[in-house]
Amino acid sequence: MTAQPTARAERRSQPPGPAVAPRRPATTIPARPDRPASGERRRTTSTVRGSDVFAVLGAAVAAVGLTTVLFTQLTPFDGALGFAVVAYLLFLSFYLVLVSLDESGPVVRDRLAGVLVHSLAVTMLVALVVVVAFTLVRGRQPLAYLNFYLQDMRSAGPLDPLSAGGIRHAIIGTLEQIAIALAITIPLGLLCAVFLSELPGPFSRFVRIVVEAMTALPSIVAGLFIYAMVILGLGRQKSGLAAALALSVMMLPIIIRAADVVLRLVPGTLREASLALGASQWRTIWHVVLPTARSGAMTAIILGTARGIGETSPVLLTAGFTQFTNPDPTQANQVSLPLFVFDSIRRPDATMIARGFGAAAVLMALVLLLFVLARLLGGRAPGQLSRAQRRRRALASRRDALRFAGREQARHAAVDLPPDHPNQR
After folding, report:
1. pLDDT the model gives residue 379
2. How far, in Å, are 57, 62, 64 from residue 54 at the CA level?
3. DSSP assignment of 356-373
4. What is the pTM for the complete model shown?
């Protein structure tokens, strides 16, 4: 009984010190442990772990080593292709075993599928690099001569050096033929794609079936069709125009099919919003659907161009072959770059073979240039306008604002007029 007053008195007798901060209320969240001076350990969000890299490298080394032993010591196998196939199959087997040691069944199947997809992608990339590099290496000699681009073969023979002759006639023929073919296929292809996507019905289903069937049409059939209808039927001579018509037959189903898929991906809510604002179906297609699908439509045009610019047999049947430059696509024979490559590679002369590979390299550069131009013209996403388009939109908005302001002033002026005024309604 006496201890409590004594302790209370001792506390009262102590000198006043600094104020003690009130204790914070306790929570259910556990206190964090003291972190080291270096800071919190950073967590990684990558799906690739160190064990995955070691499994891939180990399986690759084991597959190459075992395949080498098989091809050099145990079996009579030889050949680079057989070595690559056996090594790849052994790599998949070793990788499957290594992953199964640490992971469960679903994870093992997922890793195996991932390795298959990545290996196929790497294979395609390597094949593309090999094709491009091989063409550039074999055609590097004629590419160094300026006359190769500025002259034709009228004054050069198979035994002449690379300092004489060139592919000017083939470049002009390719550009003219693909330009005419694009001028025909772009409007027809986009119109047909709009018809298939915006006007569904029994006839559109029939047209879609025909287009899908024409997608796998052999190029020689297109050449024979134009040869029979235009050259034999109408009595026209072989020309670049006939070759462009044959290329159009090849390019048209590609553009229609790709553009149809892109137009069907446009959200239906955009169409409904435009129609709800009072726009007609044609204005909705022109101002809403086509601008939204512009990037995809350019991709469709690129696919069609890639199909037509490398064709040889339709051009051979409909345009013939010539060593001279013919800038007029409506008459006389005209040659293209693929046809020039085909004719040059068949020659036994080293200089003509080099010219053929050089023309192939120029064709690849031309295709790349066309693709870059197409991407620059139509590669913007929906809603992204160029500087000129933004300037035109701003001017149109200013004119609309002035017109609305004029209407408002006229309305107020009409209200302020006396009742007997002739302009008063």
Report:
1. 59
2. 5, 12, 15
3. HHHHHHHHHHHHHHHHHH
4. 0.70
